[in-house]
């Protein structure tokens, strides 16, 4: 048993996925022999309720010049981050010359708006390739990890930040206290620390076990995050559920507390009902995950026996967990279609399913497509009207395993 990365207490292992590759580690055939695997176990801390990975992977294995995640690949994500920028702008509207810092600013998808409007901003992004893309997009970006020394340097050069924003990034950093200390250093006394991550309550409710992978070191909920922020003199003053990434939560924290909102109280009640502060809740998730795996493998094996063509849609990091955990390889899924150039013509981590450009999907529609990018379901169904009209069907596994009906067809 290890110790909680947030509070130091002894943690309890609640989920065990076995041997897993790096979820975004799409690779060439010549790299198969050297592929890195780790033991993916998820723990729960009975003292501060933090759900976390038992043994975080060395970040050097994950965030490098070939990092495969580009935030701007989805139009919905572009809309989402534009809306986030508008909201932050509105929070700071009475400030004369606000300064916004984003942790893990990726390709500049959120900060672009500030860059266009001539607002002082800085993105801090550790992966050089996505940082370069941000700079090409006109976004001020520095390529580094966000820690105390980075924060001190930014403070010296630019002064304190009125808002520090981090979407899908803080949960990725094992040395969480270093990030929090950096925020303490850089944040203006009345500034906002805004965090946004997949919400543990949604993972639980939807059996979205594919959210458990190496990059996600922590799985936040209101109570665990409040415990963590409290150690750094910050309080969560508001929350706002988000639809992206399969169900996320945006938390607003400040150094000086404000009265709690109705939304905070509602979320506290939801977390109590879900049992997010009890290890037994997560142990119970095991049975649902096993059932989901059996059902998905059964559907795919049956389609294989019927000689149907099945491909994957979206080479998501999440898909790496599903295919590896369920033992789904190229025998069951011909290829995975993905619009991200850096993933194309490579193979999926661990299971080595070929990843092909989107054209491969359109040029020869399969009978079925496993919706690995289920978090973009609405956008994809709208885009794939022709595939559906021609009789193609999507298979999903969140919140349950099923073949999606096509409302436009009389046969469904
Ligand atoms: P993402 O939602 O970031 O999930 P994860 O964090 O698990 O990687 O990834 C979506 C992936 O799906 C990305 O590689 C782009 C791809 N994609 C398509 O190929 N077509 C689409 O229409 C959409 C919306 C995404």
CATH homology superfamily of the largest domain: Vaccinia Virus protein VP39
CATH class of the largest domain: Alpha Beta
What is the count of DSSP helices, taking H or I runs of 4+ residues?
Answer: 13
CATH topology of the largest domain: Rossmann fold
Query: What is the subunit organization of this protein?
Result: single chain
Record field, number of beta strands = 18
The helicity comes to: 25-40%
Shape: globular
Protein described:
The protein is α/β, with parallel strands linked by helices. The chain contains 13 helices and 18 strands. The chain is 33% helix and 22% strand. It has two domains: 71-283, Rossmann fold (3-Layer(aba) Sandwich), CATH 3.40.50; 297-404, Rossmann fold, CATH 3.40.50. Strand 4 (99-103), helix 2 and strand 5 (120-124) form a beta-alpha-beta unit.
Question: Helix and strand layout, with pairings?
Answer:
Layout (H helix, E strand, L loop, with lengths): L11 E10 L15 E8 L6 E3 L21 H17 L7 E5 L8 H5 L3 E5 L3 H9 L4 E2 L5 H11 L2 E7 L8 H11 E12 L1 H7 L11 E2 L2 H9 L4 E8 L5 E7 L7 H13 L4 H27 L4 E4 L3 H10 L9 E3 L7 E2 L6 E4 H6 L4 E4 L5 H7 L1 H5 L3 E4 L5 E2 L9
Parallel strand pairs: 4-5, 4-7, 5-6, 7-8, 12-13, 12-16, 13-15, 16-17
Antiparallel strand pairs: 1-2, 2-3, 3-9, 8-11, 10-11, 14-15, 17-18
Helix pairs in contact: 4-5
């Amino acid at each position: 048993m290890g110790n909680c990365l947030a509070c130091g207490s002894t943690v309890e292992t609640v989920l065990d996925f076995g041997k897993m590759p790096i979820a975004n580690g799409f690779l060439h055939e010549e790299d198969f022999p050297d592929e890195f695997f780790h033991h993916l176990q998820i723990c729960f801390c009975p003292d501060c309720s933090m759900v976390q990975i038992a043994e975080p992977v060395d970040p050097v294995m994950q965030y490098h010049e070939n990092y495969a995640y580009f935030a701007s690949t989805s139009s919905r994500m572009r809309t989402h981050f534009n809306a986030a920028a508008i909201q932050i702008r509105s929070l700071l509207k009475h400030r004369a010359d606000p300064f916004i810092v984003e942790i893990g600013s990726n390709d500049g998808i959120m900060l672009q708006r500030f860059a266009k409007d001539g607002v002082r901003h800085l993105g801090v992004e550790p992966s050089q390739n996505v940082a370069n893309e941000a700079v090409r997009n006109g976004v001020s970006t520095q390529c580094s990890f966000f820690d105390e020394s980075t924060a001190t340097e930014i403070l010296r050069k630019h002064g304190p930040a009125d808002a520090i924003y981090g979407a899908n990034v803080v949960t990725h950093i094992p040395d969480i206290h270093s990030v929090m200390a950096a925020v303490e250093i850089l944040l203006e006394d009345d500034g906002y620390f805004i965090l946004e991550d997949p919400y543990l309550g949604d993972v639980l409710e939807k059996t979205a076990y594919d959210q458990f992978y190496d990059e996600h070191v922590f799985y936040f909920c209101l109570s665990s995050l409040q415990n963590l922020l409290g150690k750094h003199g910050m309080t969560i003053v508001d929350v706002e559920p988000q639809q992206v990434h399969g169900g996320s939560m945006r938390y607003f924290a400040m150094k000086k507390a404000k009265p709690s909102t109705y939304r905070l109280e509602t979320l506290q009640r939801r977390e109590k009902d879900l049992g997010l502060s009890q290890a037994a809740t997560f142990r119970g998730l095991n049975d649902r995950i096993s059932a989901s795996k059996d059902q998905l493998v059964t559907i795919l094996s049956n389609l294989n026996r019927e000689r149907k063509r099945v491909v994957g849609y979206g080479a998501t990091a999440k898909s790496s967990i599903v295919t590896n955990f369920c033992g789904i390889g190229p025998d069951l899924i011909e290829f995975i279609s993905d619009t991200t150039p850096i993933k194309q013509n490579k193979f999926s981590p661990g299971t080595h399913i070929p990843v092909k450009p989107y054209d491969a999907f359109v040029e020869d529609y399969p009978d079925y497509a496993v919706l690995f990018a289920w978090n973009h379901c609405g956008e994809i169904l709208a885009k794939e009207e022709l595939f559906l009209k021609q009789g193609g069907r999507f298979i999903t596994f969140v919140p349950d395993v099923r073949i999606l009906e096509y409302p436009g067809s009389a046969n469904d």
